[in-house]
Amino acid sequence: MGRPREFDETQVLREARSQFRHKGYAGTSVADLTEATRLGKGSLYGAFGDKRQLFLRVLDDYSAGSVVAVRDALSGDGPAIDRLRSYLLAIADGSARDGDGCLLANSTAELAGQDEEVAARVSATFRALGALIEAAVREAQAEGDIDPDADARAVGGMLLAVARGMEALGTGGASRRSLRRTAEQTLAVLASRER
Fold first, then answer.
1. Which residue(s) pair with 168 in the sheet?
2. Which of 18, 28, 31, 92 is the most exposed place for a label (fewest CB within 10 A)?
3. Are 70 and 132 in contact (CB under 8 A)?
4. Cβ contact 110:55 at 8 Å
């Protein structure tokens, strides 16, 4: 019978995620991970496997959390257009504050072209996020706030692209004001003419 783990797995994954977000997969060394998590290499590998397996676990947790966060942001009471606006403005605000960017976007840029497993995971997450946004768009169309003749799937894809683009721009130093203007203008363009 093995010894029980003497560390907080959630905290270890959070520290590893911070390293991968800040330095990227290739730029994060095992030494960086052991220093950040305060685990020895043997303990880290014993619990999570090698660096790649730890990264995939971090990516999976981050992806699942992202889907839940978007589901929560886009569900609830009030008009769907207001929930979409709040979601995009939250992305704008968070992107302007967070210089490390989104782990999904960073992973896509760094690894998706060369690692099929990462590409598949990221693609599945983006599909799930797009479906949630599309559902909110359909609600806003039914409520008369987005042109009912617009292709809801295409509009959802566009809003996802705007959100991911704002994250990239924020990482590059775009101001909160600029990102918020982008979010507001995107929704203004979608407004139903009948409103």
1. none
2. 31
3. yes
4. no
d(CA 182, CA 166): 8
Q: Which two tokens stand for residue 15?
A: 């520290």
- Is residue 149 within 8 A of residue 176, CB to CB? The reply is no
Q: Could you give the angle at which helices 51-74 and 80-97 cross, rounded to 10 degrees?
A: 140
Local structure of 167: helix, strand or coil: helix
Could you give all domains of the chain from N- to C-terminal order, each with its CATH number?
59-190 (1.10.357.10)
Tell me, letter by letter, the H, E, C secondary structure of 92-130: HHHHHHCCCCCHHHHHHHHHHCCCHHHHHHHHHHHHHHH
pTM: 0.88
Q: Compute the distance between CA of residue 133 and CA of residue 153 in angstroms, rounded to an integer.
A: 9
Report the C-alpha gap between 103 and 169 in whole angstroms: 14
CB 111 within 8 A of CB 118: yes
Per-residue pLDDT of the chain (195 residues; tens, 9 = 90+): 445 457 788 999 999 999 998 899 999 999 999 999 998 888 888 889 899 999 999 999 999 999 999 999 999 899 999 999 999 999 999 888 766 678 888 888 888 889 999 999 999 999 999 999 999 999 999 999 999 999 999 999 999 999 999 988 888 888 999 999 999 999 998 875 554
